[in-house]
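dude i think i finally got it to work??
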Amino acid sequence: MTDGALTPAEQAAQKALARIYTCIDEGNSFLLEAGAGAGKTYSLIQALRYLIEKNGADLLRQHQRVACITYTNVAKDEIETRTDGHKAIYSSTIHSFCWSIIKDFQPYLRDELPNIKEWAVKLEEFGGIGTRSIVYDEFGYRSIKETHVSLHHNDILILTIKLMEHEKFRAILTSRYPVLFIDEYQDSDKYFAEALKTYFLDTNEGPLIGFFGDHWQKIYRDGCGKIEHKSLEFIGKEANFRSVPIIVEGLNQMRPELPQHVKDPNAVGSVTVCHTNAWVGSRRTGSHWAGDLPAEVAHKYLEALKEHLATEGWDFSPNKTKILMLTHNILAMEQGYSSLDKVFPYKEAFLKKEDPHIKFFCDTLEPVCVAYENQRFGEMFSLLGGRTPAIRSHADKIPWVKDMDELLTLRNTETIGAILDHLKRTKHPRLPDTVERKEQELERLVKEPNTEETSPVKILRELKAVSYSEIIALARFLDEKTPFATKHGVKGAEFENVLVVVGRGWNLYNYNQFLEWAGDPDNIPSDKLDAFERNRNLFYVACSRPKKRLAILFTQELSDKAITTLIAWFGNKAIHSLPIINQ
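look at this
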C-alpha cells in the first residue's frame, strides 16, 4: 500500500462517517451498526465534534445541548474528556439523563408514583404521598421520609416512559435536547427504546436521534437488542481496525451481512479451534453442565493446550494474552472470590468498580497494603493523597506502624466487615467520603423499622460477611495480574492473543446447540430465537477480541453438525481433535 493511501478499514470508516454527517445536516435520525473492532466510539466522538463545530455556538445561545446517553459512568467520563468538556454536550447515564428532565414535573410524579406496583402498598402505609417532594440520588433505593420520597433506579425509567405520553413533556425534552445520541444502543432498556420509536420516530417529531452500537454485541438480557424503524437511516460501518485478516475472515463468515475490511491486508496471525470429543470418560450431567468434561479433566486440557500454544509463540503474560471463560461465576471460582461474586446482582458493580467499597478496596487499600508490605512508604502515602495528615515526627509514625501491621494480619484472616471496623476505629487509612456516607446511610436504614431491606442494604450486609482474602484475589484479577477474564467482562476490550474456553456451567448457554442452529438458520425454532442470539452474541464478542491469535477450546462435546459449522467459519485446517487425556 502506497504512503498516504487509505487502508481498506479507513476507507470503510470514512464512508460511514460521511453518511452520519449527511444525516446530521439533513436532520435525519440514524443507526450506526459498528461490528467488533470497527471503532464505534471514534465515530460517536467525531459526530459530536461535528455538531460542536457546526452548531455548538447556536446551541449554547439557545440554552440547548446535545444529549449523549451512555451505558456506564466510565463511558460518560471518556466522552466528556474526548469532547474537551464542551458545554454543548451533555454526556450522562440513562438514569441521570431522565432525571434531569422529569425532576421538574413534581405534581405529575406524585400522581403517578402510587401506580407503580412496588410503591402502592408502601405509600398506603404512610397515608399516601401527600406533598412530599420526589428525589433521586446515587444510591437509588426506595424510602419514604417526612418531607420527601426517594426513587429507585427502575422508577426513573418507568416514570420517564409514562411522561413521554404527554405532548408537553416531549416538547420540553426536544427543546432542551434537539439531538439525542445513544451509545451502546443494544443495551438500552427495551421499554425506553420502544417509547423513543413510538413517540418520536413514528411521528417524525422530536429530537434527531442517533443510535450507536451493535446488536450482535448485546450480552445483557434486559437490553433492547436490534432496533429497526423506517425513519432510521441504517449505516453499517464495515471496518475492523483490531484483528488480522485470518480472524476477520472468520468473523465475516459468521456475519456475512456486515462484512468488515481490515487495516492491514498483509498482517499475519492464526486461528486454532480445538474440541475434546476424543475423551472417553463420563461427562457431566444436569441442565447446567450436561455434556461438559469433569472440572479436573477440563483443567488438564486447558493446561495442555496452553503448553502447545506456547511452543507456537503465544506469550501467556497477562498483558499479552487473555483466557476468556463462559461465565464470571466459573472464573470467580478459579480465581478465589466466588462468595464475593454472589453478593452483587449486577457484576459491573465490582468488575468495573462502580461500587464505592470495591473501588476503595481495589484502587486504594490494596495498593497501600502492598506498598507498606514492601516498605515503599513514599508510594504508600502518595496513594493516600490528601486523606493523610502530615507525619512530622517519629511519634507520628508509631500509630501508623501499629495499625498497618494489624491491618496486614486482618486482611489475610478476617472478613470485609472486620476490615471496615478496623479502619473506622484507627482511621489509618481513612475511609473516603463516598464509603463513609454509604456506611452511615445504609446502617441507619437497617435500624429504621419503616424501611424495607433494599438491595443496597442487603449487599452491604452480605459484603461484610465475605472473607477479605477474596478482595485480594479480585484486586489481582482487576489489576490484570492474572491472564483470566470473563467473556462478559471484555466487551470493547482487545488483546494480542485470546484463548476462549467454551463449555457449559449455565443453562442459558449451550454452544453445541448454538452451532447446530447457526449451520441451519432457517430451522431455528421460533421460541428459541432469543436463546440463539444470546449464545451467538457472546461467542462473537469472545472471538472478536484478539488482534493476532485466536484459539478456542470446547470442553463441551460437539456434534458432527456443530463441527461442520466451525469448519464453514474457520476452515478445516483450523479444527483439531485433542488427544485423550487421562482423568
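The longest helix spans residues 40-61.
im so relieved honestly
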